[in-house]
Q: What sequence folds into this?
């Protein structure tokens, strides 16, 4: 069989272009072993009489929607506020979670640190990459700040690559939670290919999914990613699991971002922030204080924005540098911000406000290694670019939040009260907000001065006079 490496589409012969996703040269050959069970036993094949054969007592039944119970199962508390938030309130029993990230970003550290804190659950930690001695050394290092010592008997370590052997040990141990590190190192005897291939990853993930759904035991899979930053293996791996979590961040930065890409039991807009330390990952409960540089007085090209990711408001430092283009074509570079949106905002500055930036290089950076998608960042991007262009710093104590439209108007934004409260809590004296948001606000609740604006020119006049 041939399987598309990008979307999982199957074909009986090799195809140059995948008809499902349109990618070229993505079909890989895999060998599939015939199923030993007869078709009539597992799938209800058609008999000689043309009817459907007996499926047994375990067959699925047709249910009316009104007869199905809608109660939520109690979630498993991971004793980690950031991880619980990204999972949607905790780990759902019987769910299967895929955790991906760059090599050395801290996937195994996060998994082992969380398992050490779960003292009330019997856990089986399956490692296909490291020895038991390596895991013990890491556990001793993490237990310095962990609330649990390493001599607890609830965490069991298994170093194994065979899926059949793993299931034998699961049958003996009867764990309440299974962690597999990583899915690319596990192989099954039913598929004649090496570990990490498309067929092996798909079959092993499917077998672990069946185990999780039938037994109610949650499974956490750790996966590799490709050099493009996407999860390695077939796309069907992401379709199989219930939740896909990506661990992001630069190895040279101390911050790590835990972001949900897919979640059947919660929101995908949540994110958790950690700080990498010598003794493990520390939860960052108030990221605003870490993302703001303490001393930026007198520096041009720095603007503070009140952004929201998920349900969390935090203040982000936007840095911009505008310089004369050394070559014929000016450069437009954005780190942590959408570059196409940066080009749009520069066009608004040129057309609506009258600042000529056609022959200038523009570099934009979101401090702390964050990647922000909130539209309310527009106003701070324009302010930082203009501050660098005229080499005039923005006064300390000012922050802003607002979406900028193509005609230069400042559009209203959501959850304005949370943004204002976060700025007030961190000691800011002025905040620029869209004028349209002012009608729904009670100004007496806040001690911070609100500066409502309708157009970009009004915001720039309030900042620079």
A:
């Amino acid at each position: 069989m041939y399987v598309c490496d990008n979307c999982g589409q199957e074909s009986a012969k090799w195809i140059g272009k995948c008809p499902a996703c349109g990618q070229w040269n993505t079909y890989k050959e895999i060998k599939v072993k015939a199923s030993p069970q007869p078709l009539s036993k597992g799938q209800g094949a058609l008999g000689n009489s043309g009817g459907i054969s007996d499926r047994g007592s375990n067959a699925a039944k047709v249910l009316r929607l009104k007869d199905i119970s809608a109660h939520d199962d109690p979630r498993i508390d991971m004793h980690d506020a950031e991880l619980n938030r990204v999972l949607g309130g905790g780990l759902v029993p019987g769910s299967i979670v895929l955790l991906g990230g760059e090599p050395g970003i801290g996937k195994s550290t996060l998994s082992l640190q969380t398992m050490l804190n779960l003292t009330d659950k019997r856990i089986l930690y399956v490692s296909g990459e490291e020895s038991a001695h390596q895991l013990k050394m890491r556990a001793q290092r993490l237990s310095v700040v962990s609330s649990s010592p390493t001599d607890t008997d609830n965490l069991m370590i298994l170093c194994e690559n065979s899926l059949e052997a793993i299931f034998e040990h699961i049958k003996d141990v009867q764990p309440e939670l299974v962690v597999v590190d990583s899915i690319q190192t596990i192989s099954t005897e039913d598929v004649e290919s090496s570990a990490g291939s498309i067929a092996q990853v798909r079959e092993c993930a499917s077998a672990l999914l069946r185990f999780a759904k039938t037994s109610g035991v949650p499974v956490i899979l750790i996966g590799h990613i490709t050099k493009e930053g996407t999860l390695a293996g077939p796309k069907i791996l992401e379709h199989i699991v219930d939740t896909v979590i990506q661990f992001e961040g630069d190895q040279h930065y101390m911050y790590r971002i835990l972001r949900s890409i897919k979640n059947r039991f919660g929101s995908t807009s949540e994110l958790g922030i950690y700080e990498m330390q010598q003794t493990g990952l520390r939860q960052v409960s108030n990221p605003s204080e870490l993302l703001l540089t303490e001393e930026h007085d007198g520096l041009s090209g720095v603007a503070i924005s009140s952004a929201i990711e998920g349900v969390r408001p935090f203040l982000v430092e936007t840095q911009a540098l505008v310089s004369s283009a050394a070559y014929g074509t000016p450069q437009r570079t954005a780190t942590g911000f959408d570059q196409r949106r940066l080009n749009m905002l520069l066009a608004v500055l040129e057309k609506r406000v009258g600042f000529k930036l056609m022959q200038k290089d523009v570099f934009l950076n979101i401090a702390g290694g964050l990647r922000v998608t909130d539209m309310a960042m527009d106003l701070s991007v324009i302010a930082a670019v203009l501050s660098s262009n005229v080499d005039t710093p923005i006064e300390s104590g000012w922050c802003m939040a607002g979406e900028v439209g193509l005609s230069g108007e400042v559009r209203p934004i959501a959850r304005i009260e949370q943004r204002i409260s976060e700025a007030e809590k961190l000691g800011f004296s002025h905040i620029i907000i869209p004028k349209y948001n002012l009608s729904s606000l009670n100004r007496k609740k806040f001690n911070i001065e609100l500066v409502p604006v309708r157009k970009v020119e009004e915001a720039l006049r309030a900042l620079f006079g």
About this structure: Confidence is low (pLDDT under 50) at residues 38-57.
